[in-house]
Structures are given as structure tokens and as C-alpha cells.
Automatic annotation (TrEMBL), chains A, B:
Keywords: DNA-binding, Transcription, Transcription regulation. The lineage of its organism: Bacteria, Bacillati, Actinomycetota, Actinomycetes, Micrococcales. SUPFAM superfamilies: lambda repressor-like DNA-binding domains (SSF47413), Periplasmic binding protein-like I (SSF53822). InterPro entries: HTH_LacI, LacI/GalR-like_sensor, Lambda_DNA-bd_dom_sf, Peripla_BP_I. It holds the Pfam family LacI. It comes from Agromyces albus. Transmembrane segments: none annotated. This is LacI family transcriptional regulator.
Length: 350, 350
DNA sequence: GTGAATCGAGATAGCGCTTTCCCGCTGATA
DNA sequence: TATCAGCGGGAAAGCGCTATCTCGATTCAC
């Protein structure tokens, strides 16, 4: 095992006490000079403290500050899966905004398990974060149903701020995404370019986001004149492989005249695309595919994927701003989505 | 602004003191029952404390524990860009392993800016994390050169553990990836299936990881009999768009008989693929493309991308284990890579 | 039966900070 | 000259915990 070469003598980090002594001032003065205080401190003294701090390479102990101040500079972020581009984009937004506010982000992954989620909220509460952001909806039929709400409420009662991203299940601040409206608009446009017979691949039982999107899609079809039979709605995991499986399932049952398959999110759609290809068919031509989210990847798959753009980073940004009480963040209403037609839905001339 | 409906009376979280009082025992006993201690505590007392804690919904203040114990349960993770699949996969690994060790991960993004990186290290040091993991290499020609090393060394001196992922620039513990060997193997295999004339798209000036991969690729070609002219090595940003630009550049200068373009990482390769298509050419057929990393996406692009697999999640896991002093993690040597041939390099019969 | 261990609960001294509170000082006011 | 606000530095009381220390009550050996 390699040792660092730059010096080996083990020492504890300099404390404020050390700085004060080195500067020849009191602890109070040192504290006041280093971390803004309402009280002024003589320039001469301040300079001495700053110099001493630099000399000792002092770095304030955030835990100690937290204890003394009774408040932290931490934001806790809970996502289903960090490697999923949907969540990593949101996370990037949260981190960027947090950095801007000089806050520190701690991150955890629920792996889509409600029990884990509850557990994590409990643990993270110990950090006394200023804000807790939860992204990714849960099954509505959830054994821990009330418990999470209780826990979050308790957290808010003790001064924290909860913000949910695109999961309107509790009565907390929420960054609302136009899931329903976006899917509806998508459906209309697809009918507009000639598609009539649709199928849908959606997430597991009762995932709220998925449900909203499917519902919106249905509504759009109903209004515009497309058909979606119930047996053409397949459920699968809310992941790339889920999308693959769902599409394979549809193909195996004969495709049955289906012209376009709408997957409730892009990672599923991308999986679906691959399933189409693996079945020896040509996506776009033999069967069109559309997704939802507009994750970065979908520009680069072939055919490029038609989808509904959700400004994911912005979601993360907004969540934090909302938590911090930024009025504009809340007054902006639901986050706008936008249909993006690409080659995966070339259209049908009838 | 919505208020939570579940109860509004604002209160501070229960403290250990509250629990002790509620249970009718001393602070010390409460502490001992709730958080493991070497000392035993009477079952009767322990139960009373546990009950009281549950009743008050007590959650220990981690900051206070950190101050009292003089050690935290935090891991700090620095990556270049959270939304980049390379880093988000690594992050997922770190978080998973951390969770397993009951540690908490705080995350920050350097955005590939050395100044920012240094700044972040300074800030995060205030957290007194047990471990600091840095992923993503920096330009070798870096204005802050020594400063980062100094800072990290100081951190280690004060008892922390630094682990670098795939950036062998300092003398700290490092998770080494077989960048050179992997690229060399790739080159050999590509020559083996008939390619002779190559081009390379690599990252900005002096990025270590990129440099190693290119060097390995060169060595492989030299050994197996492929050619790579210096004017066919283009530099671009280490991102999807960089890859796109790099490929466009190559195409604009006439492709010049190039049969295969190797991009130093997958996100660049994916961008390159799109550039080929946008130029009206067929990737795989008109020009073959290969990447490095095997990020999840590349299975789903068309043609599927030939690449060198790096077990990214495992990298993150290993980094943490290494930091925690897991012997096996360090004795395993460099992380193995594996060439994965896919349709983007169908081969040439000569 | 006595002294030495042993046990385990409670009191308390910190941990590294912030923030009162106190107090000597200066300068304005009368 | 006496009075009284500021002003600003220092002492010290916490913040919510852990860990050492104290000390009475048991237990045990001989």
C-alpha cells in the first residue's frame, strides 16, 4: 500500500483555537474574523487571524459549526438509481444549484425500494439537512405508505424542507412536471402525422409518473382519433431492460397492426428500440417508437427518438430553489414540456 | 406555497437529553443504549431508553456525534460531471458500497475545472470526511498543479484517506484501470479483423486517461501492423460534443483512406457516430468506430459500439474499499478491461 | 467475614465551534 | 468635568453528543 510521499507525520487538523493562539487573539475574535459575524473586528486583528489561518492551513470543522449554530449547510438528495440518466441529470442540477448556494449535497439511492427509501430518510434525517429532495415516484400500493409521509412531516416540523420532484403523492412542495399534458400533446402530434394504432409500454403497477403519462397519452389519442387497446398496454420494469422486454412481448404477440409504441420514459424506449432491431425489424419503418424525457442519449440512437422534452437539470435546480423559498421557483407553475419529433416516428401517409 | 398538512407546530428535533429524561435515566446510559458502546447496560434500562427514543422519534444528531467522536461517517466524492454516464456509473458504485458500510456520500462536480476542483477539496475538507475519492483526470499542464497535491496530502496527514480513480498523477492510493493495455488489445483485435488505417479522437491537451489510451492504441497498432498518422490524431473536448466535432473534422479533411476511428471514450465515440451519420455516411460501413468504457448506452446505439469494457460501478466500489483499507481491493491490481467487438467494427476482408 | 475485584449507572469533562454577556475604552453630549 | 452611548475584545456558556472518571453495590476468593 502506497504512502503519500509529501510528509508523513500524522497530525490533527488545526482548530480555531490553534488559529487564535497563533494570531494572539481570543477565540471569539478568531471566529468573528473567519466566519462572517454581525460584529465588526478591527482590521489589524482580522488580518492577523486570516494570516494565521492561512499559515496553519485552517479549515473550519463543519460539524462543529453545525452543532454550535444549530443548522447545517447540507442538502440531502434521494434518487432511485444514480446511474440512470434521468436521475443523474436531475442530480447534476441539484448539485449545480447547491454549489451556487454554497451548500453541500449528500446523495443516496433508494433502488426503487420503498423500505430502503424510508430507511434512508431516517438516516439522512440525522444529518439535519436544510433540505431533503426526493426524486422518482413510488408504487402507489406501498406497504410503507403512511410511514414515509409521517417521517417527512416530522422532518419538516423540525425545521427542514421537503421537496418532491414529479411525484404528487404527498402534500409537500413539489416540482410538478407536465406529464399528462406532455403525453397528450405527443399523442396529438403523432396522430397528426398519420399514426392510428398504438401500443404502450409502461412502468410497474401504479407508478405515478408512468400512470400520468399513459393517461395523458390516452386522452390525446381519444381527442385526436387514435386507438389504444387495453391488451396493447404492457407493464414492465421502469428501466432499459424493462423497455426491451415490453417490446419483445408486443412483438411476440404479433404486433397486431400496431404502428407506434409509446414507452413511458426514454430509457425504456431505447430498450424497446433495441428489441425491435433484435427481432429483425426496423424501428421507425416497421414500427415507430416514442419516449418521454429527452435524456441526452436519445439524440444518438438510430433512429433518433421522438420524445417529450423535460428539462431535467432544471428540475433539480428548481427543486432546490423551491426548497430555499425562492418565490419565482414556485410561481413558475408546472415545468413545461415540449414534444420533439425525430426519425423514430417518420409519420405515415394515408 | 403549500404547507404540509400533517401537523404544523414547529419543534426542534428530540435530543438525547430528552430521551434520557423521558426514560428516567442518565445521559450516559441513554447514549450507551442507543449507540453501541463497549459497556453493557442493563436490559431493563436499555429497553426503557429504546422505547423513549421511539416515542420521541429520536434521531441522533450526526454532527454532534462527529464532534464528540472526532470522526465522521462521511465519504466525499468528486467527479467531473455527474450527468456523464462514466461518472454517474462510478458514483453509483461508490454510493452502493458506502451504503453497505453505513457511510454517507457527499458529492460535488468539478466541471473539469482544476481551480474548482481545488476549491471543492478545500470546502469538503471542512466536513472531515473519512475518505475522499477523486475521479476524472486533469490536464497535466495545470496551473494549480502542486496545490491540489498539497491539499490532499494535508488531508491525509490529518487522518483522511484519498483515493484516485484512474488518474495516476499523485502518490495516493489509486484504482488503476488498464487503459494502456486495454487500448493495445483493442488495436490488435481491430487489426486482426482487417483494419489497417486508423484515426484517433482524443481529449484535450494532456488528459492523462486519454493520453494512456491513445498511447496503448498506438503500441497495439505498431505491434500488429496498423498505421496511425499524426495528422489523424485530433484533439477535442472529452464529451459527446467533442467526439462529434472531432469526427466532423476528420470527415471534412477528406477521411483520407481512414478505415476506423478510435475515440478515447464512449461518449465521444457516440458523438462521432452521430457525426458520421449527419455527414451522410454509414458508420460501420463507410467508417468504423470504436470507443472505450462500455457505458450502458453503447449497446443501444446503431451500429452497437465496439469498445473496451471497464467495470465502472466496480471502480467506484473498489475505490471505497481501498480507502477503507480493504486488503483485497488493493491486492487485486489494476482493474481488468475487456475488448468487446460489436457491429460498429464489422471487419474488413482483404 | 473481610478485602479485592468487578460491575454498571451517573456525573462530568470535553469535542470545535458560535454567541451571548461583560467590561474597559473612546468620544459625543451637556 | 461628569454621563452615557456605542464600539469591540475577551471570557464563558452553551450546542448535542461521547467517553472518562467516580463511586456505591455486588460478587468472589480465601
Amino acid at each position: 500500500m502506497t504512502e503519500t510521499g509529501i510528509g508523513t507525520s500524522r497530525s490533527t487538523p488545526a482548530t480555531l483555537h490553534d488559529v487564535a493562539r497563533e494570531a494572539g487573539v481570543s477565540l471569539a475574535t478568531a471566529s468573528r474574523s473567519l466566519n462572517g459575524s454581525t460584529r465588526k473586528v478591527n482590521d489589524e486583528y482580522r488580518k492577523r487571524v486570516l494570516d494565521a489561518a492561512a499559515r496553519l492551513d485552517y479549515s473550519p470543522n463543519l460539524s462543529a459549526q453545525a452543532v454550535a449554530r444549530g443548522t447545517t449547510t447540507t442538502v440531502a438528495l434521494l434518487v432511485a438509481d444514480i446511474a440512470d440518466p434521468y436521475f443523474s441529470s436531475i442530480a447534476a442540477g441539484v448539485v449545480a444549484e447547491a454549489d451556487h448556494e454554497r451548500l453541500i449535497v449528500t446523495m443516496a439511492a433508494t433502488e426503487r425500494d420503498p423500505e430502503r427509501e424510508l430507511e434512508l430518510v431516517r438516516t439522512l434525517r440525522g444529518q439535519r439537512p436544510r433540505v431533503m429532495i426526493l426524486a422518482g415516484s413510488r408504487p402507489t400500493s406501498d406497504p410503507t405508505e403512511g410511514a414515509l409521509g409521517e417521517e417527512l412531516a416530522a422532518y419538516e416540523r423540525s425545521g427542514g424542507r421537503v421537496v418532491l420532484i414529479s411525484r404528487n403523492e404527498f402534500d409537500f412542495r413539489t416540482v410538478i412536471v407536465e406529464n399528462t399534458a406532455g403525453a397528450e400533446a405527443l399523442a396529438r402530434e403523432l396522430v397528426g402525422i398519420g399514426y392510428r394504432r398504438f401500443a404502450v409500454i409502461t412502468g410497474g403497477e401504479g407508478l405515478r409518473t408512468a400512470a400520468d403519462r399513459v393517461e395523458g397519452f390516452r386522452a390525446g389519442l381519444a381527442a385526436a382519433g387514435g386507438t389504444l387497446d387495453d391488451e396493447h398496454v404492457v407493464r414492465a420494469a421502469f428501466t432499459r431492460d424493462g423497455g426491451y422486454d415490453g417490446m419483445r412481448q408486443l412483438i411476440e404477440s404479433g404486433l397486431d397492426g400496431i404502428e407506434l409504441v409509446f414507452a413511458a420514459n426514454d430509457v425504456m424506449a431505447v430498450g424497446a428500440l433495441s428489441a425491435v432491431r433484435d427481432a429483425g425489424l426496423t424501428p421507425g419503418t416497421d414500427v415507430a417508437v416514442a419516449g418521454f424525457d429527452d435524456i441526452p442519449t436519445v439524440r444518438d440512437v438510430t433512429p433518433a427518438l421522438t420524445t417529450v422534452r423535460v428539462p431535467l437539470e432544471e428540475l433539480g435546480r428548481r427543486a432546490l430553489r423551491l426548497a430555499l423559498g425562492d418565490e419565482s421557483a414556485s410561481s413558475e407553475g408546472a415545468v413545461r414540456t415540449e414534444v420533439v419529433l425525430r426519425e423514430s416516428t417518420p409519420g405515415i401517409t394515408r
